[in-house]
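Technical annex B. To support the medicinal chemistry partners, we prepared a structural model of the target in complex with zinc ion, based solely on the information shown next.
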Amino acid sequence: MSDLPTFVQGLPKAELHLHIEGSLEPELMFELARRNRLDLPFRSVEEVRAAYAFGNLQDFLDIYYQGAGVLRTEEDFKDLALAYFRRVAADGCRHVELFFDPQTHTDRGIPFAVVADGLLAGMAEAETSLGVGSGLILCYLRHLDEDAAFPPLRMAEPYLDRILGVGLDSSEVGHPPSKFARVFRASRERGLKLVAHAGEEGPPEYVWEALDVLGVDRIDHGNRALEDPKLVERLVADGMTLTVCPLSNLKLCVVDDLAEHPLKRMLGLGLKATLNSDDPAYFGGYLGRNWIATADALGLTKAELVTLAKNSFTGSFLPPETVQARLAEIDAYASSSAYSQ
Ligand code: HPA
Ligand code: ZN
């Protein structure tokens, strides 16, 4: 007999919704503050953790942007990335498509190259020393003007061969995807993949816009799509991947109880859902914890867990031959595992 945590740990899987700045643990926050001679508005790690009680997305974002202020040097960004990769390697994660928010750093005077080179160095080391591959997704901050999204795209020009795509994050309500139509078109013209947060707090119309105005390849979250049957039909017909984040949804009060989380319902409707952590240092768990807590709360079956693992690769931007190899590994693992549920 294999138990759920053992089965989940051994299951090959990818993470497709992870904000690297959201993996900044309070311990590293203090270490970087000390290293960079910065004052923090907190006296202890415990005090920081006690501040992580959020009523909504904006409550979280306020503290998340403040925390990111300790990241100053290339080494800081490399250390941040490596700390995250060590955690998910232990969870049996094989591939990550990680978000970063350049404007959060360039707006406080940190050069784009410091951020990108530091993250890329951490990613390269994770690949060789931990066996976790990864790709970068540059996110535009939607609470800012669309014009403010063009400089990061320009700064990314020398890195286009090392950036998978662009995304859209930060405060959703009041900032519909259509506000970013031009910069997404310009991003597509540069060969970048497109993803966008939609339907986390925003209405189903934002998911429609992400599909029809931006032309995204993937929807981040998408929970509120369930309010619109026509939209569900469209997402199923398109085989559109949703990067769902259950512990984030719980922490940001998108759901009141994990047992009421729509993930199982999404799978039942034929939606291509995946399981992810979003901002693990802030939301109470990395990838493995998201899988185990959600499987427990919703009674996910072995077949559903296998589907989620497969979706994490078929929904990724990995080359088709790598995806096929991972799917075969998942099948081999599932049929050899004694886990039955
Ligand atoms: N939602 C929107 N924007 C974000 C998030 C999130 O969960 N995390 C970091 N930026
Ligand atoms: Zn997110």
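Notes passed to the chemistry partners:
Residues 19, 22, 57, 64, 169-170, 197, 200, 248, 278-279 surround hypoxanthine (ligand 1) (CB under 6 Å).
The mean pLDDT is 97.
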